[in-house]
Amino acid sequence: MTEQEKLMRSINANEFAMWELHIYLDTHPGDCEAADKLNSYKKTTAVLVAQYEKSYGPINENSSNTNRWAWIASPWPWETGEGN
Fold first, then answer.
1. pLDDT digit string (tens) for 49-74?
2. What's the pTM value of the predicted model, to 2 decimals?
3. Is residue 27 predicted with pLDDT exceeding 60?
4. How far apart are CA 40 and CA 37, in angstroms?
5. Taking all residues of the chain, what is their mean pLDDT, rounded to a whole number?
6. Within 13 Å and on the Cβ side, how many CA atoms surround 77?
7. Max CA separation in the chain (angstroms)
8. DSSP codes of every residue in 14-77
9. Residues 38 and 18: beta-carbon distance below 8 Å
10. Please, which residues have CB within 8 angstroms of residue 15's CB and are 6 or more apart in sequence?
11. What is the 8-class DSSP label of residue 1?
12. Percent of residues, the chain, with pLDDT higher than 70
């Protein structure tokens, strides 16, 4: 496995852990230890992504929004008026 593949695997593992913690925190919003762990994964992921992009170029064109409440800002499917 190349260094690029190892770095991407680390990024993917951290992003997976972040999403799992997002899901957990949706049902356990008062768990401060999990929230701290999520913040730690966010920081580690940011460092890994910066390292990857410095060495190999951008991972993708869109930056991922890791704000766990960002989905609520979009209209719900029944609010768009499509499909009626």
1. 999 999 988 887 555 555 656 667 77
2. 0.67
3. yes
4. 5
5. 85
6. 2
7. 51
8. HHHHHHHHHHHHHH-TT-HHHHHHHHHHHHHHHHHHHHHHHHH--S-SSPP---TTGGGGSPPG
9. yes
10. 45, 64
11. -
12. 80
Looking at residue 26, its amino acid is D
Residue 44's pLDDT is 97
Give the Å distances, CA to CA, from 61 to 1, 53, 57.
25, 11, 11
Contacts of 76 (CB under 8 A, 6+ apart): none
**How far is 51 from 74, CA to CA, in rounded Å?**
32
More confident residue, 8 or 79: 8
Reading the block at residue 45, the tokens are 């992921």
CA distance linking residue 10 with residue 16, whole number of Å: 10
Residues in the chain: 84
Owner of token pair 């230890």: 33
Question: How many other C-beta atoms can be found within 10 angstroms of the C-beta atom of residue 44?
Answer: 16
